[in-house]
């Protein structure tokens, strides 16, 4: 499921299952390098092809107004706990942020086909582990042994994890090359910033990507919309609707409906950004949402590692 290290262009990668992995080798998440990865003409072609795939997968979905992950408060809590575990494990195993985001995408894709309420809690936790291990196999350069994945209160053996992985793979029809907002980040940074990229911009964008997973179901929102909104908020969190429309008007990717979706997501991420900025480190509890944490640098660990206590 890996991607070879041979030279490539966006055009050549379109035949691969995972086009958004083209940023994998050149865009190191621990560094904030020049986001201009490809010549503009190829970049535009690549983005158009991603959007075609995205439209097929998501249709007209992507309005962040009043969004929720499920109608049940208890199921929302279960999903949030799983995401917390994914983020904690990402930090302890030093995984890429894209790996964690991709695993949440798998999680939401899986439970869009098999409703969350139909499963026992232990099974949901096992499936979240399987989603992360599969995402790591897609995105990490080295294979992490299954024994490295620890879930508080549960002791899953390798055979159980492998069965869960196969269940996820079969449910997702082995289509693991999900498009994520990371696929569009460099493109929108170039479009909105040009030569004058603000210091720390990539860190802020990625932080918003991670925080938004706890606010919405990723199956309900197009990755390109999330990416555009996050970049705009990271650049300027005080834009009016007219200012947002002015910023996105030169980009001929969407119609009026998508523009409304971008502004809805922008408003939601404004709130996330305010919580990030205003919440002091001393009052952030261990299990608080990512959106309420202090501002972190791109190469910092986002979550403390949970200790496993067994009786």
UniProtKB/TrEMBL annotation:
InterPro entries: Cyclin, Cyclin-like_dom, Cyclin-like_sf, Cyclin_C-dom, Cyclin_N. Residues 179-305 form the Cyclin C-terminal domain. Residues 84-170 form the Cyclin-like domain. Pfam families: Cyclin_N. Keywords: Cell cycle, Cell division, Cyclin. GO terms for biological process: cell division. Interacts with the CDC2 protein kinase to form a serine/threonine kinase holoenzyme complex also known as maturation promoting factor (MPF). The cyclin subunit imparts substrate specificity to the complex. Belongs to the cyclin family. PANTHER family: CYCLINS. This is B-like cyclin.
């Amino acid at each position: 499921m890996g991607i070879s290290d041979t030279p490539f262009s966006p055009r050549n990668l379109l035949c691969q299952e995972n086009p958004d992995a083209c940023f994998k080798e050149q865009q190191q998440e621990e560094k904030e390098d020049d986001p201009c990865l490809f010549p503009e003409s190829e970049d535009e072609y690549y983005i158009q092809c991603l959007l075609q795939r995205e439209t097929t997968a998501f249709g007209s979905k992507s309005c962040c107004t009043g969004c929720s992950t499920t109608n049940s408060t208890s199921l929302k809590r279960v999903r949030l706990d799983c995401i917390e575990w994914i983020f904690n494990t990402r930090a302890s195993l030093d995984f890429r942020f894209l790996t964690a985001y991709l695993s949440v995408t798998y999680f939401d894709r899986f439970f869009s086909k098999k409703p969350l309420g139909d499963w026992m809690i232990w099974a949901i936790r096992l499936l979240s582990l399987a989603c992360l291990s599969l995402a790591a196999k897609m995105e990490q350069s080295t294979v992490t042994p299954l024994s490295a994945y620890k879930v508080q209160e549960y002791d899953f053996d390798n055979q159980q994890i492998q069965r869960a992985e196969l269940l996820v793979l079969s449910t997702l029809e082995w289509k693991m090359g999900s498009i994520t907002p990371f696929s569009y980040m460099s493109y929108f940074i170039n479009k909105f910033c040009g030569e004058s990229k603000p210091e720390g911009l990539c860190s802020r964008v990625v932080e918003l990507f991670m925080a938004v997973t706890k606010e919405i179901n990723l199956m309900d929102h197009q990755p390109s919309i999330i990416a555009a909104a996050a970049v705009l908020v990271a650049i300027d969190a005080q834009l009016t609707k007219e200012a947002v429309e002015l910023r996105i008007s030169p980009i001929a990717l969407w119609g009026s409906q998508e523009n409304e979706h971008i502004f809805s997501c922008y408003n939601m991420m404004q709130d996330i950004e305010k919580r990030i900025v205003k919440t002091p480190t001393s009052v952030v509890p261990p299990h608080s949402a990512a959106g309420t944490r202090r501002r972190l640098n791109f190469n910092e660990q986002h979550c403390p590692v949970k200790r496993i206590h067994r009786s």
